[in-house]
Amino acid sequence: MENVTVGTGAISFDDVVAVARGGAPVVLSDDALAAIDKARAVIEDLAASPTPHYGVSTGFGALATRHIAPELRAQLQRSLVRSHAAGSGPEVEREVVRGLMLLRLSTLATGRTGVRRETAELLAALLTHGITPVVHEYGSLGCSGDLAPLAHCALALMGEGPVRNAAGELTDAATALAAAGLAPVELHEKEGLALINGTDGMLGMLVLAINDLTELLKIADISAAMSVEGQLGTDRVFAPELQAIRPHPGQAASAANLTALLRDSGVVASHRGPDCNRVQDAYSLRCSPQVHGGVRDTVAHAASVAARELASAVDNPVVLADEGRVESNGNFHGAPVAYVLDFLAIVTADLASISERRTDRFLDKARNHGLPPFLADDPGVDSGLMIAQYTQAAIVSELKRLANPASVDSIPSSAMQEDHVSMGWSSARKLRKAVDGLTRVLAIELMTAARALNLRAPLTPSPATGAVVDLLREAGVGGPGTDRFLAPEIETAYQLVADRSVTAAVANVIGELA
């Protein structure tokens, strides 16, 4: 697997995904090591000074007024990390921990934090060897950085605390380091603070969510196209000249996808022309580009915020190496990231909501234009996809609750020194649940629309949507017929969405969607 090189500049979205999800090894560039050395020299000069400097020779937070003697500073760093590794609750996913470790390393590589090169190199080595500290669900207020999650990672650099090795087995840090031929570090002045003071957890989860939502927006266009087709809707409303008079870029992209997906559809062609009495389709069909496009534009805005954050050096205090000084700042506040995380949870819920509405129309005999109730084989004896829609509805209801913003909350901490916090970690955690829920909702719409298209035979779907129907059938998601155990089929459809098989099937026919 190709190395990801961390330098002094911004790390890319693709690199974050490659390390977090793909397990890519990590190396520091020569310019990063030079910047780290230059900043460290500043810290060592300040450490030798009789004048107290915050984060170098003082306590932290509300205890910053105490000057720490040189012989106690190693203990100070150990105590900081141990006391801040105070998370609780379920274990956080491996990809999230790897993402936050990489992003902390990226900030260290800017030469703004003052750590020693051996500390940064050990963090890179943990990523390369697949050693993942155990981080817990609760512990971050999203201000002064994701303190507790990052402290659990810093603890591992000291050879302490639980970790998982590359095989996913639970062990202790000292054992895992030794097995990889690595030695723990003793943290020096400023290093403990530099390792825990960043927005890396919430930012990593934002990048992963943007990666997922970018894919799911294509799935939403695919499922919407299948629903329009299966419900005998029109494709005329997706014409580019209609989108041009309301020039939102996301709307235009979604409408173009729908047009491409429905091209050469035998079903659509069967009711196109002067004899068609369908003047307007329901909003959930006709307005798909407007809703999907609004989500697309929101994701694009979130990506611009994430890109700026990826180019940032978030620490407090920060080293200004060229000036030979260290300055306190508030860049660790997670508000910019927290806001867009909450914004994405809102549009995720609405994207799922319109998908569920399209699905429900298939099941109602009064609205599905000649299909059997609930797409059942023998309605009354068979329930068809009735309860699959219940599952969708339950998920959508949960997504609406998850859309309630966490960033509007704040609980003062640290004896009122940290009196306003972002709750960005909480925003990120609930967005992850929302993205998973959306994946499941879209999978059920695909299942439902595929069954409807089978029931429209001998009319044929478009080549693109037909490829999705074929993919589902080949994977074991059955078509029309008597009732059967549905949960495994829903899970299969979910996996086909999540592993990008659905978009790949479409791309093989009409090329990549926008």
UniProtKB/TrEMBL annotation:
Alphabetized InterPro entries for the sequence: Aromatic_Lyase (IPR001106), Fumarase/histidase_N (IPR024083), HutH (IPR005921), L-Aspartase-like (IPR008948), Phe/His_NH3-lyase_AS (IPR022313)
Keyword set, alphabetical order: Histidine metabolism, Lyase
Enzyme class, broadest EC rank: lyase
GO cellular component: cytoplasm
Gene Ontology MF, one: histidine ammonia-lyase activity
The protein's Enzyme Commission number: 4.3.1.3
Keyword Nucleotide-binding attached: no
PANTHER family for the chain: HISTIDINE AMMONIA-LYASE
Family: Belongs to the PAL/histidase family.
Identification of the protein by name: Histidine ammonia-lyase
Originating species: Nocardioides albidus
